[in-house]
Amino acid sequence: MKSDNDPIAMEARSDHSNNGQSLQTLVSGPLSSSLSSLSSSARTLPSNQEFHFFNNFDNFRLPFNQITKTSDSLLQFIGSSSKNWGPNNSINFPNNIGSIADDEAYRWLTDINDGILEQFDVSVDEFQKIREKEEETGRVAGSDPDNNGFQLVQGKKKKKGMEGGSSSSSSGVKGKMTTGKAKVPFHIPTIRKPQEEYNIRVNNSKQPFQHVWLQKSEDGLRFVHPMEKHSVMDFVDKDTVVVEPIKPSSIESTPFKLVEEVKDLKELAAKLRSVDELAVDLEHNHYRSFQGLTCLMQISTRTEDFIVDTLKLWIHIGPYLREIFKDLSKKKVMHGADRDILWLQRDFGIYLCNLFDTGQASRVLKLERNSLEHLLQHYCGVTANKEYQNIEWRLRPLTDGMLRYAREDTHYLLYICDLMRTRLLLMPKEPEHFDSPLVEVYKRSSDVCMQLYEKEQLMPNSYLHVYGLQGAGFNAEQLAIVAALFDWRDFVARVEDESTGYILPNKVLLEIAKQMPVTASKLRRLLNSKYPYVERDICLVVDTIKHSMQNAAAFEAAAQQVRMGRVQNVSEEQVAVNEGAEALPPETLTDSNRNHRC
Ligand code: AMP
Ligand code: ZN
Ligand code: MN
Fold first, then answer.
1. Of 92, 327, 389, 505, which sits 20 to 30 A from 150 (CA to CA)?
2. Which domains does the chain have, with CATH numbers?
3. Residue 337 CA, ligand 2 centroid: distance in Å
4. Buried b / exposed e across 384-396, counting CB within 10 Å, b at 16+?
């Protein structure tokens, strides 16, 4: 028994009353300095029997209990934070620290730590990728499915002089969006899917796309694009005289029509029948649909701008506009039309003839950059706000900013085409080109037109091409998981008409394979509640992981190939062994699989 006069006890009391106080001062400063002082002082804390001895004294016990309480509630808060782990995935700190085994708390801490570091890692990785892409392309990149519907984009607009003309600006999308950082939604999860809202039917089967509006070749083996029957020389402006470019009126003084009703579409078609040139552009969504969805069609004539709500008028677009787009006597001006051409075929059965692609013209003219943004700036002195490029185009009603941006994408195109045509005519023929520069542009544009939409075909070894798999150093078990999850993801994406990136991004798929979680809670911890279809099928996914691990022998050869970096050479024979992990048949997706507890 210790007496109050016991000198050893007195020394201990004074020592550890200081210890208690100094602990409290340690945790009261800024986080970084607190952390470093705490970690270096941790070694001086009494442990084991020594701790129990000092714990007999109020001067030690009281501040220590206070600190324990504070840190306990802090840890509890971190573990249950839905911000960190999602609303259903709290990882509560084991209660009652006094009575739990140290290693339980330790495991909890390392888990949490790993989770936070992982999230940080993912974010830094993504940030770097976006940065690299931006630097490569000079465009503000955006589709980040891991984001909660918002992405941070950096406005970096500099205004340059206009080539021979006065300067105007895109005031409608200026202001907040062009100065500094702005939050631009690229995904709004609460939007009702237009596929349901407007009854848009899509065919996501693995069968090849049928071009029902095209004739087949004589041998019946391929579809024939209408352009094939014509030569570029049939429609290239034969008149080589330089004509005066026609400058468009400002956006503000140009009549504008948002086409949302069939009667307006009919009126638009009638107007287009009477013009011989039109500028066209599309806006598209590829995140909430398997093959992609055309959300808007912008059309400008010399005097008017139109925006067609293609989601609302889906089945009417083809019947009203098909002939106009096919008409050889009407010049269609588009910028970088490669993807638009395919979207028009896929969604509306529209096949375009007589294209002048300003992107191709920019290449032939050897301009310093080939983006529309650059052409707008260079020829029209307009600073386009490309932050809109990849925003949530499914949103209705369209905001003023969206309308303004969408109009700007076609409003100046006919004028830009005039200017480019003049320069092409004045440009000496390049020795490496057989044709004059203008004809070269028409030929290139015609090649763009004649591409035919095809569905992406999956091969038995497609899973080996998941981005990031090379270099992941996976063993056969992990590779078996990649293959099985890849098939599950493809199946769900087709049925639900979602992108595979929305169902389960590659990075997360690979992380699951890496960690091989064999319980729903371990899997959930990895997902942060971000992937509703994985959550829906959580039991099935866990079973798939377990099953893949048991049947991994078939993946030994493939794993070796990947490790040796020889994926492109993986032969049919070797990947055939992976067929055990083929796509899950639909009947495996029963409601019992969808229970949250498995
Ligand atoms: P644009 O030809 O610039 O009007 O773009 C047409 C569509 O392509 C947009 O609606 C987007 O869906 C997509 N898109 C364009 N630029 C990007 C980008 N940098 N990242 C992702 N998608 C893009
Ligand atoms: Zn476009
Ligand atoms: Mn556009």
1. 92
2. 7-137 (no CATH), 235-449 (3.30.420.10), 462-595 (1.10.150.80)
3. 6
4. bbbbbbbbbbbeb
